Structures are given as structure tokens and as C-alpha cells.
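#lab-general

N.A. 3:47 PM
ok so I finally got the sequence cleaned up, no stray characters, all 100 residues accounted for. can someone with queue access submit it? mine expired

B.Y. 3:52 PM
send it over

N.A. 3:53 PM
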Amino acid sequence: MEGDHYRLAFDKPETWSQKYNLVWDRLLGLNLFPPEVARKEIAFYLTKQNSYGLPLDNRRDYTKLDWILWDSHHGGEAGDFEKLVGPAWGFANDSRAACP
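B.Y. 4:20 PM
back already:
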């Protein structure tokens, strides 16, 4: 753990990554991780958002919409879903269609 978030890897200080697989812990009812882990991650992610979405991790700016959608279901504060998905929706809405 790195204070306000969890690292990309245990041996990599000052790193972070989307913990998208936490969604399966919640959906399958496995309860391997306490809810505080997901809430902490969501709060941290909201500080790392770019104009068109949350990067996969600290190494690059690109993202994956499926990971953002999975992360948005971690059960953070009210409105966190919209805050995480909104920038990705903005990208889709602002982008020109590939076909005429």
C-alpha cells in the first residue's frame, strides 16, 4: 500500500494501476477484499483522470473503456460511476464517426 492507494506491484513504490478485477470479487460475492480497498482505489482514481478517461496505470496515458466500466462498479461514493465513466463518454461523444 502507498498511503492513499495500492501499488502497481508490491516492489514498485510510487506506482499505481487500475484494480479492475476487484469487480469480480464483488459480483461473485467472494469477499476476498474488504470494501475499503475498492473505495480507496476509486477515490485515488478520481485524482488521476485525464480528459478522456482514467489511464491504465502510471506508466502511460492510454486507457481501456472496459476497465473503466469495471472500476466504476466498485461501490465508491454516490456519483463515482458518473465521474469515472463521464470522461470516456465525452471521448465517444466528441470523436468524429469513422464512417460517413
